Amino acid sequence: VIQKWVNREISNFDYLIQLNTMAGRTYNDLAQYPVFPWILQDYTSEELDLNNPAVFRDLSKPIGVVNEKNAKAVKEKYNFEDPLGMIDKFHYGTHYSNAAGVMHYLIRVEPFTTLHIQLQSGRFDCADRQFHSIPATWQALMDNPNDVKELIPEFFYFPEFLENQNGFNLGQLQISKEVVNDVVLPKWARSPEDFIYKHRKALESEYVSAHLHEWIDLIFGYKQRGPVAVEALNVFY
Q1: Which PANTHER family match (predicted)?
Q2: Helix and strand totals (H; E) in the chain
Q3: What is the spatial distance between Cα 19 and Cα 77, in angstroms, rounded to a whole number?
Q4: What does the alpha-carbon distance between residue 9 and residue 237 come to, in Å, rounded to a whole number?
Q5: pLDDT band at 146, cuts 50/70/90?
Q6: Between the CA of residue 59 and those of 20, 176, 177, what are the distances in Å?
């Protein structure tokens, strides 16, 4: 599979799906759901220029420290000594892929809506914590080193999850009073289909093809454990 990918006989999308499968990840288990990277960092421009390296996220860093400002807090957390010596050191107390995160992204489509409601004791979580905007979700990641969610494959092929086609009452945001309905898209996306088209194009772009292996090292490769993981700020609880 690596050889096929290197020879460009399979796409970046196919390669990531196959890696996820080999790593034991599956659509049948929310706790081991396939994981995909955030690949862009420009969610505010009117047009998306895929020839400009500045629009892409730095794939060599875990999402928690893509914003340099978070690195200090992450290092401090690792250097905290557990007085009982029971807990191994870690940079992040949460994970880049978990069941709650999958339900968070897919809340507008069944069976994830029902699963989310069950998780929240029979009701929707408060509107401010819902997935309501792609630009706002990215900004929250940049501002908060404790939020380290990567993406799921649906961001590259499934426009329906961005629309509230079932008309669920997801509440309204506290400060702006905005009603949470369809997911707010980046300015450069004219529709959910347009977002998926451009996002998939970005995944297959020259920049991502040249740097994807750096992210794979963090998630599936040698930077998951040991001194290399510590150096890469990539140790999870």
Answers
A1: BEIGE/BEACH-RELATED, NEUROBEACHIN-LIKE PROTEIN 1
A2: 9, 0
A3: 30
A4: 37
A5: confident
A6: 17, 33, 35
Q: Which residues contact 188 (CB under 8 A, 6 or more apart)?
A: 42, 45, 46, 47, 48, 198
In which domain, by residue range, is 116 found? 1-43+51-232
- Domains identified in the chain, total number: 1
Q: Tell whether 3 is covered by a domain.
A: yes
The dihedral sign for the CA sequence 80, 86, 91, 94: negative
d(CA 102, CA 94): 14
Please give the Cα distance from 203 to 79 (Å, whole number). 35
How far is Cα 46 from Cα 49, in angstroms, rounded to an integer?
Answer: 10
Distances (CA, A) of 17 to 1, 14, 132: 11, 5, 26
Q: Report pTM.
A: 0.94
Counting residues of the chain whose pLDDT is more than 70, the rounded percentage is 100
Cα(204)–Cα(200) distance, integer angstroms: 6
User: What residue type is 230 in one-letter code?
Assistant: V
| Residues 150 and 63 sit within 8 Å (Cβ to Cβ) | yes
DSSP per position, 100-164: HHHHHHTTTSTTHHHHHHHHTTSSPPPGGGS--BHHHHHHHHHH-TT----B-GGGGT-GGGGS-
